[in-house]
Design a protein that fits this description.
- This protein has 16 helices and 12 strands.
- It is of the alpha/beta class and about 350 residues long.
- The protein starts with a strand and ends in a 7-residue tail after the last strand.
Length: about 350
């Protein structure tokens, strides 16, 4: 057997109701992400179902999803809100994340992503004012009262969603309240999101399929992490994130599953495999990107991401003499992960036997 640090999933959307398997068929037939979005599908479809779901229903499904992540070796996961787009539903989602944070073994980094999309009937500028003047002050009160714990502020900076100015305003307000900046950028169009992240000393920018050379240089200089999501590029048939260029430039590269109704993957081993095959990362680079670098992207590299004295004691014991089998075997983690430990305690034991 061998031991590796517990895996860290640096980008997920795990709280929602109403699956979108029907949209997968549309994508296979050639529909683009934005075409589905503009037709009322995508995020807005999930928003409608999530608004109708009770907190209890959302909590049950979140716990099931976190358990599946844990069984695949993930011991720390970033969890976003963002399928509410109104204050009440966003609070409902963040409260569900907080309940899971308190009673689930997997570690959670909580993210407010109220600017995930522009609500129906509003412009991006109106939504920005609402988030800055209403959402964030109310959330700050709940944090100060101890009702919620929020680590990060996120915005979907994208053409047809929130432009650079709106994104900057929301992120700066969230940062002034003590939230770490960790946002979506340069996914479908080059928006100069990477440059904005560097300007704001963001902890991380996610996606970056359309990042510019200037953006890569700026992120390398600012030490803003790039959270790359190979599952999304794969499922949406997007341009692959430029992992090699980023690594060669000195950018801190992390990985995430982007688990959501659009990219339904719980498994960081599969994410690492895709990163190696499609983004030309080495297995060692992919492991670092799924442990210490992903922890860095969440502001938790002092407690998570490596096996060191004084850290949390989160690790995975593999039924293999070489850790590389976790990446080499595409989809084989169900048998390979023998034990998962969090803070030194066994939280999952697998009784299946690996077969080579």
């Amino acid at each position: 057997m061998c031991i590796i640090p517990g895996l860290v999933d640096a980008h997920t959307h795990p709280v929602w109701a109403g699956d979108r398997v029907h949209e997968f068929a549309l994508k296979l037939a050639g529909a683009s992400y934005m075409e589905i979005h503009q037709a009322g599908g995508g995020i807005h479809f999930t928003v409608e179902h999530t608004r109708r779901a009770s907190a209890e229903e959302l909590l049950v499904s979140l716990k099931q999803r976190l358990q599946r992540m844990l069984r695949a070796g993930t011991t720390l996961v970033e969890c976003k809100s963002g399928y509410g787009l109104d204050l009440d539903t966003e609070i409902k989602m963040l409260t569900v994340i907080e309940q899971a944070r308190q009673d689930q073994p997997v570690g959670i980094s909580s993210t407010f992503c109220g600017a995930h999309s522009v609500p129906k009937g509003k412009t991006a500028k109106e939504a920005t004012k609402d988030i800055i003047n209403v959402h964030l002050p109310q959330l700050k009160k709940k944090v100060e009262n101890g009702d919620l714990h929020i680590d990060n502020i996120d915005v979907f900076c994208e053409k047809g969603v929130f432009d650079l100015d709106c994104t900057r305003a929301i992120l700066q307000m969230g940062s002034s309240m003590g939230f770490q900046i960790n946002f979506h950028g340069d996914e479908l169009h080059p928006m100069n999101s990477a440059e904005l992240g560097a300007e704001l000393n963001a902890l991380a920018v996610s996606h970056l399929e359309e990042v510019t050379d200037e953006g890569i240089a700026a992120m390398a200089k600012s030490k803003t992490a790039a959270v790359l999501l190979p599952t999304t590029a794969y499922m949406l048939r997007l341009k692959q994130p430029r992992a090699r260029d980023m690594l060669n430039a000195g950018v801190i590269v992390a990985l995430g599953s982007d688990f959501n109704p659009n990219a339904y993957c719980f498994s960081m081993p599969m994410v690492m495999h895709l990163a190696c095959v499609n983004m030309k990362m080495s297995m060692s680079e992919a492991l670092a990107a799924s442990t210490i670098n992903a922890a860095y992207a969440l502001g938790k590299s002092h407690t998570h991401g490596s096996l060191e004295v004084g850290k949390n004691g989160d690790f995975v014991i593999l039924q293999s003499s070489r850790w590389e089998h976790l990446i080499y075997q595409f989809g084989g983690h169900q048998e390979l992960v023998k034990y998962v430990l969090v803070k030194g305690a066994i939280v999952y034991e697998n009784n299946r036997t690996a077969d080579y």
